[in-house]
Design a protein that fits this description.
By secondary structure, this protein is an alpha/beta fold. It contains 13 helices and twelve strands. Helix 2 (16-25) packs parallel to helix 3, helix 9 packs parallel to helix 13 (309-322) and helix 11 (247-256) packs across helix 13 (309-322). It binds pyridoxal-5'-phosphate (PLP).
Length: 323
């Protein structure tokens, strides 16, 4: 993974959340402050918003796309910036180079959760980030078998912030899971490239459908941050998000009408997986907070797999007709 990412050092963990937690907790102590983009995977947001403050580490969540908001949130005790780009599930994209430059200016480090881009399409370290974390449970395994996580950074960063924390607190990956992940790395570029190709076909088809709106795909020209994507990503993502016009009820009818695409909150898998974030990955948030994260009651997140794109479109078409 270090070779793939262009990092000096890498450590593997039991899960993606173990990687996120270690990368953050290894750097801070009581009194420190963390600034994070608000559009985060539910568990990442829990760690920043609720877990760290229990130990006296305060945090501020900002609109990650607004550089002035990052700037305004900085305090003399700000030690770490944290973001996901593209974010889960609304595929919001943040200018990593700009946030990294600001982090450097104020003496903070930048940790990027790169799950949605994969190392194939985005290399945050080359954009100025200090640390990259992955849930290897997603594209890296890619076949729904094992949990795993990764922390990538310079040798000095790993030695200073990560190594002792991991050794003494024990979120280690099991040797068997590490072996499975290593086998999976042999096919990661092939899988991700084909899944992204399928995702582009599916996104384009979804974009024209009555009953659906707000189709979000990082490879689409109308993505709100298309200009940043062109600068910092070498490919889109394997994920597509869209909204069912009839809210939760229509979204459920749509999901239940699918035969090929499976309902699951995993992603990056060889099988296409679909989820309703408001009642699963982001269910613990109030409707107001969900709305601030762009997660409406009708929002659907589709992780596109390796099936034939024609079969995926046929499945989506049948399900949509049922709504
Ligand atoms: C799934 C996910 C995680 C957590 O990974 P686990 O391996 O499930 O612990 C973290 N960040 C993002 C963006 C994810 O999608």
């Amino acid at each position: 993974m270090a070779a793939f990412e262009g990092a000096e050092a890498c450590r593997a963990t039991a899960t993606g959340m173990a990687a996120v937690t270690a990368a953050l907790m290894g750097q801070v102590r009581a009194g420190d402050h963390v600034v994070a983009a608000q559009a985060l995977f539910g568990s990442c947001r829990y760690v920043v918003e609720e877990h760290l403050p229990r130990y006296g580490v305060t945090s501020t969540l900002v609109d990650g796309t607004d550089l002035a908001a990052w700037h305004a949130a900085v305090t003399p005790r700000t030690k770490v910036f944290f973001l996901e780009s593209p974010s889960n599930p609304t595929l919001e994209v943040i200018d990593i180079a700009a946030v990294a430059a600001l982090a450097r200016e104020v003496g903070a480090t930048l940790v990027v959760d790169n799950v949605f881009a994969t190392p194939l399409f985005q290399r945050p370290l080359q954009l100025g980030a200090d640390c990259v974390v992955y849930s290897a449970t997603k594209h890296i395994d890619g076949q729904g078998r094992c949990l795993g996580g990764l922390i990538l950074a310079s040798q000095a960063f790993i030695e200073t912030h990560v190594q002792t924390f991991l050794r003494q607190t024990g979120p280690a990956i099991s040797p068997f899971n590490a072996w499975v992940m290593l086998k999976a790395l042999e096919t990661l570029p092939l899988r991700v490239r084909q899944q992204a190709h399928n995702a582009a076909i599916v996104a384009e088809w979804l974009a024209g459908r009555p009953g659906l709106s707000r189709v979000i795909f990082p490879g689409a020209k109308n993505h709100p941050q298309a200009e940043i994507i062109a600068r910092q990503m070498t490919g889109p993502s394997t994920l597509v998000a869209f909204e069912a016009d009839g809210g939760k009820e229509a979204a459920f009818r749509f999901l239940n009408g699918l035969k090929l695409i499976r309902i699951s909150n995993n992603l990056g898998d060889a099988k296409s997986l679909i989820v309703h974030p408001a009642t699963t990955t982001h269910q613990r948030f109030s409707p107001e907070i969900r709305a601030s994260m762009g997660i409406s009651e009708g929002l659907i997140r589709l992780s596109v797999g390796l099936e034939h794109a024609d079969d995926l479109v046929a499945d989506l078409e049948r399900a949509l007709a049922g709504v």
